[in-house]
């Protein structure tokens, strides 16, 4: 019996598009026997192709059995036998193959009535269109309408790695489908780690929404979650509905959150998060977002009425109090050169985020910003106007730790560059500073509020050649104040001014030579550098302290004329810095293999100006400590040595050492070794030492002050044991007090169809004080599941891993 080829009217286009829509369905399983892997077009990876693959194979459509017709709307047909009944019905038997465009249907028998309105197929039929495979026992399809019914189906979405079954699949209208006793999974054939099962699923491809009744999630065939009714998206369009819950347990108790997403409009959405914490009570959080053509913003916040008191080191601190926070932002564009930003943030107390964003990836913000800003960026001028303030998140929070508000702050900067190396700059700022404190309990320099006008013209010249450079530079600081000390008695002027010039001459030479080491050609440089800086001693006792802090000494401070940050203090300086640097460059790539430097400053006068601004301090008892007196009167800075070494493509090291050669003691040192493997393995070994009082900007009473030498050991690693398994860990040790500051151990399993993160962590909370005695430990175990193609539950830990382990990039599920 020979085969014959014929053409007829186009067959229904329902099957390919309809079943593609069900691919977005959060899958489940139907009734009946599961097809074999081979029947699902499954091809296992073989040999080298299997390396690095999460899935053990892939779905591949076999070649078309019929060639494509010139007319994509035409129907190509082959069959073992074709018979016509008396009434005109056509019956195709045997190995029936039909192709129209990209869709190919195979069946054992096919009946087309005389009116050519329907098509009936039976006997292990299969439909493929390059994206989807559908197998069924029976099919009833309308050839001229969007109606079809398929019985006992199994389907595969090749690219999405999705497979599923349904007892019945119906097309009920254009882009509308219904599945009975259906389900799906993204696991490999034969692996039913998870699946979503539903008795009744409706899909609306036009709206991108699906619904399921009596849906349940099964893990290893064991039901773990049930929804009486479930609404889910079919594509990337946002849809209103419940999101996956979050559940964690730690030393503070149980934390459960159930988010609900509301798709308000194409440019607006909101998320509501009712949350129950066993040691605090019910917390209602939420977020509203909007995105418009020239502006965007969001409002987030949370509210808890009458705190149950919490647990751990801060138990009962806020018992019975309302706890809340709000953070609203808005930003937009006025013109192509001008933008604006608005923000308001606030919290009920300084430990809100310590208590409610605890865990492996908690919120680490230390302040809440309030801001209204507009700027302009011209070719020469940059303008900025803002009103800005911060709520500092500490509790207890002393008055002198409260930051000043800027109400407002106006900035105008410009620069000019000339062909002969001359350049000039103009920097200016006018700010009104305010804060709400008791003026009688803060240091006198911080008791005032008022305005500050700060003008800084700059002139300099830079001569530069490949063999060296020379740059003299002078900037004039003129600052004028109008102050109000409120109820604080003072002899200070309420209209002080200051004018002082900051001058420097910086110069360096560059010597080069060719060098061969270990069979590798290098270019070695030798770069001596000198920098002289002079800032005259200027009486600043009448000046307030709005935003200044004495800077920590470092390599960069060897070359800076500014001993203080901010504009309220200018430190007197008469010093010469000298250094010698050497770099090792690979000739073929120009990459820096080694950089080493050693430098020091020699002082020709004492540095009498401290944060009080007093130029007459010269006696030891006028300083807070002997250490601060020594820093002000020492003849030389610490010797600064630094090293960055790319030992191999995978190993690198860094070293810094600040050594006092007058007292023969180390003031600060750090050494670290880093390992980076192309496959993602990471190892960090670090040691840090810092002498007590090294940072002059941190005074006794500050939260960051430590009355001991700090010595810490930091070890962290991330090891990608297999393409599926990541192992991570960190240990931070306080050698001074022989205690652990942070311990973390975790495992991440990333399989073809699911992911799992399991993390144990124990850490020290400093209770927002400088005292070690009131520190307390917290600990927790955090678990997160991700069902690929469906979603996940639990806290996301990737950000915390990357912060704790430098160089690690968490695997994305």
UniProtKB/TrEMBL annotation:
GO terms for cellular component: cell outer membrane; transporter complex. The keyword Signal applies. Residues 1-30 form the signal peptide. Its main location: membrane. Residues 78-208 form the Organic solvent tolerance-like N-terminal domain. It is found in: Cell outer membrane. Residues 322-724 form the LptD C-terminal domain. It comes from the Bacteria. GO terms for biological process: Gram-negative-bacterium-type cell outer membrane assembly; lipopolysaccharide transport. Keywords: Cell outer membrane, Membrane, Signal. Belongs to the LptD family. Component of the lipopolysaccharide transport and assembly complex. Interacts with LptE and LptA. Together with LptE, is involved in the assembly of lipopolysaccharide (LPS) at the surface of the outer membrane. This is LPS-assembly protein LptD. It comes from Vreelandella zhuhanensis.
